[in-house]
Amino acid sequence: MLGPDTEMNTLTNHLDKIK
């Protein structure tokens, strides 16, 4: 998307919601 950092941040955010 916008960059590796942003993509990782988004993925981490989604994983955090699943917990």
Automatic annotation (TrEMBL):
Name of the protein in question: Uncharacterized protein
